[in-house]
Structure formats: structure tokens, C-alpha cells
Amino acid sequence: MRYRAFGRLGWQVSEVGYGMWGLAGWTGGDGQQIRDALRLAVELGCNFFDTALAYGEGVSERVLGELVREHPDRRLFIASKIPPKNRCWPSRRGFALAEVFPSDHIRSSVETSLANLGLASLDLIQFHVWEDDWADDPRWQQAVENLKREGLVRAVGVSVNRWEPWNVLRTLGTGLIDAVQVIYNIFDQAPEDELFPACRERRVAVIARVPFDEGSLTGTLTLDSRWPEGDWRNSYFVPENLKASVERAERLRPLVPAGSTMPELALRFILSNPDVATVIAGMRRPAHVRSNLAASDAGPLAADLLAQLRSHRWNRTPTEWSQ
Fold this sequence. Notes:
Layout: E1 3-6, E2 11-14, E3 16-19, H1 31-43, E4 48-50, H2 59-70, E5 77-82, H3 97-100, H4 103-117, E6 122-127, H5 138-149, E7 153-159, H6 169-172, E8 179-183, H7 195-202, E9 205-209, H8 233-236, H9 239-252, H10 262-271, E10 278-282, H11 286-298, H12 303-310
Parallel strand pairs: 3-4, 3-10, 4-5, 5-6, 6-7, 7-8, 8-9, 9-10
Antiparallel strand pairs: 1-2
Helix pairs in contact: 1-11, 4-5, 10-11
């Protein structure tokens, strides 16, 4: 496992982190198997774990807290998220800060996350949705400054809405944001345009999420793919999106190097960008952990292959199904 500096904070974090959304909204997971995967990740050098209060309504945080207590000798970096009070993902233009992140909700959410995790302090707390129109509002600013002053959180971040990497640029100018979490992968290259340069200038850490485009970049989806009732992917891979995703993934197959896989290609594309501090991959099985963490050891992709992957950029805008 290779490690990178986490923005201006300087934390040395594993360049492949662990995304814990898989404990909620996805079927096919097994509680013991997930715990085994988490333990294996620590054993193999993963030290950055991203969860949220909304993942299983605290279940994900409690499982992660167990992991931390099992490894008192390891420095594990723990990131969680404050859910929008109106429970609307993503936020939308015109939403008022008072209905999404009022000060008392910010504090109570952090306190609940800490109780779930069994920790006295969080390394990173992130707003789970965001609107850049809130950038200069002193209410959220004072709320997070109070949390940091009291030692309840060490750093503050924003998880940017899907396909809106521009929707945090003004907020970065406040100097209060230590990290930005954004969708970045072979298809979603738009963060490179404005967001990454802004983060580089301010030494804000970049957390790349959704490295496999919710599954299409694993190369395992087909036009007949379906999931059990209640699985989030049914609402995301509606027919129009499933067809386009499968077709684009198939066009990538000839570029997968011999002896490699499409998931490894997807991760190494992201890790080839030095602006990324860590990429968080969902890993619900030990086999996922071994293969994903191995991408770090493989190193960056060759320049000519990266150039070819640039042509697979897919510029998308939010829709009613994209969430």
C-alpha cells in the first residue's frame, strides 16, 4: 500500500481507502463477511475509512467503531458525514441552509456519530450534500469552528453532489474546508477542469468516490442486470442509464492491459492523478479488498494508456434518477 499526504493536514493516508456505503442501500452483503473484509483491509495497510450517519442509520458507524477498538495500535483515519436535515439527496438549487444544515442539526449529528463510533473525536466530518450559495453564511461557519475548537472534529469537508464538481468552489475560498469528496473516474473526469486546480492551490485534500461508476466500470453489468427489491442500483440503473453504461464499458475492454482487470484499470486511472489524496472503494468481501488494494502496488498507468482513457470522458448532468 502506498500513502499520500491528505492536503494541508499532512496526514499520511492510504491511497486506496474504504467506502462504507455498502452496509446500506445495497443487497448481497453479509455482516460477518463485511467485518472480515474490514479487518483484512487494516491488515493490508488501509487506514482511511469513510462512513456516514445515514448509512444504515448508524449501523455503518457502529461497525466501524468496532474495527477501531479492535486495532488500538493502528492509526486509522475516520471520516463521517452530516446528513441533510430534510433528508433530501442531493440538495437542490434554492434550498435554504436553515432547512438542510441548521447549526443545532450540525452539532447533534456529530454527537450522534461520535456515540455510534464510540470515539471522542472525528478526524473528518463532511457535509453530505452541498450548495455553493451557502458559502458565505456565517451559521455553518461558526458551527464547524465551534466543533473544531472543542476538539470534536479535527477537519471539515464537503461531499459534492453527483456531477456538480463546480458546486463548492466559492466555499473553498472561505478557508474552512480541508477536504472535498467528489465523483471522479474514467467516465467522470470533469473535476479536473476547475475543482482539482482550486484544491491544489489551497492544499485541500481530494477524496475520489464512485471509482467504478456504481458498478459499470467493473465490467460485470449487462443489459439484463437486475437487483433485488430495495437495492439502490435499481433506481440508478434505469433502462436509459444501464444501456449507455454497458455500452461505454464495453468500449473500454480493449484498453484493459493483459493480466489486468477493468476494476484495476479504473482504480489506477484515478491513482495516476497526484491531485487525489485517496480513492474510496466499496469493499464488502475480502476478495474485493485484496484486488482493490493491490491496485495501489501496481502504480500509475502508462502515459499513452492515460491519453487513450481521456477520450472516454462522459459529461453528464444530474437527472431525477441520478441522485
